TrEMBL record:
Matching PROSITE patterns: ABC_TRANSPORTER_1, ABC_TRANSPORTER_2
Top-rank lineage group of the source organism: Bacteria
Stored SMART domains: AAA
Keyword Nucleotide-binding: yes
Name the UniProt record assigns to this protein: ABC transporter ATP-binding protein
Domain ABC transporter: 2-233
InterPro entries attached to this UniProt entry: AAA+_ATPase, ABC_transporter-like_ATP-bd, ABC_transporter-like_CS, ABC_Transporter_VariousFunc, P-loop_NTPase
Any Pfam family matching the protein: ABC_tran
Keyword Ribonucleoprotein attributed: no
A GO term for molecular function: ATP hydrolysis activity
Alphabetically ordered keywords of this record: ATP-binding, Nucleotide-binding, Transport
Length: 262
């Protein structure tokens, strides 16, 4: 469903994403985890076409993002870490606008809007201006907009920001329903490791722009030596080890011990 090969991005001398390969099959929640600044958001934004890679290929549902950008984006929904919406529109105006962008039929748009506003508890605010919404309400509206055209792939960056416990529960159950019933592929980046542990089928851990581990939680446990640890323990062990390896490589390159100032 999503195939990424050699994805690479630099900003000046800084390498944000370093030749990443990913394969996300249909009907799976695929976690993308890493410390702050690891390259997760840059990776997701390149997969959605919001940032152009310096090198690499992205294929989404058979559409090469570089050669068929419109077709690739048509089957991809994106939920960013901040809810970017048009504050001066009402809920209905915003969702109808999205339906128009995707050239959806008016009756289908109306049915989908009713279904999604009911699901996300926004129906009574259908005619309200978005500027009056709380952060959490805007986040739920962004979910409605991303799911409106029924994408094959959903890319989600920090979905739980601003949501209350009820919203957390809704999103977690929704992810599992989308992969089970709709056979959707979901790429999920989150710092809420309990959420990733609960909903992800497989996980990659990125550090300093590179994938340092990948697999199911069970496979990551074996790799980290935390055979009965939770995802937080596994994550910390793997990222600490990858940082130690990086420090050692830098020390060998510059001829001094890790932690020693040159």
């Amino acid at each position: 469903m999503v195939r990424v090969r050699g994805l690479h991005k630099k900003y000046g001398d800084f390498t944000a994403v370093d030749h990443i390969d990913l394969d996300v099959p249909r009907g799976e929640v695929f976690g993308v985890l890493g410390p702050n600044g690891a390259g997760k958001t840059t990776t997701l934004r390149m997969i959605t076409g919001l940032i152009a890679p310096d090198r690499g290929d992205v294929v989404i549902d058979g559409h090469d993002l570089g050669r068929e950008p419109v077709n690739a984006r048509r089957v991809t929904g994106f939920i960013p870490d901040r809810p970017y919406v048009y504050d001066k529109l009402t809920t209905l105006e915003y969702l109808r606008f999205i339906g128009g962008l995707y050239k959806m039929k008016a009756n289908h748009v109306a049915d989908r809007i009713d279904e999604l506003l009911t699901l996300f508890g926004l129906k009574e605010w259908a005619d309200s201006l978005i500027e009056s919404f709380s952060h959490g309400m805007k986040q739920r509206l962004v979910f409605c907009g991303a799911l409106l055209p029924e994408p094959s792939v959903l890319v989600v960056d920090e979905p739980m920001v601003g949501l209350d416990p009820r919203g957390h529960r809704l999103i977690k159950s929704l992810f599992r329903e989308l992969v089970a019933d709709k056979k959707m592929s979901i790429l999920l980046s989150t710092h809420t490791l309990e959420v990733a542990e609960e909903v992800c089928d497989r996980i990659v851990i990125i550090n300093h722009g590179r994938i340092v581990a990948r697999g199911s939680l069970g496979e990551l446990r074996l790799e980290s030596g935390q055979t009965d640890g939770n995802l937080e323990q596994v994550f910390l062990r793997i990222t600490e080890e990858s940082q130690a390896e990086r420090d050692q490589a830098v020390a060998e390159r510059f001829g001094h011990e890790p932690g020693e100032r040159s």
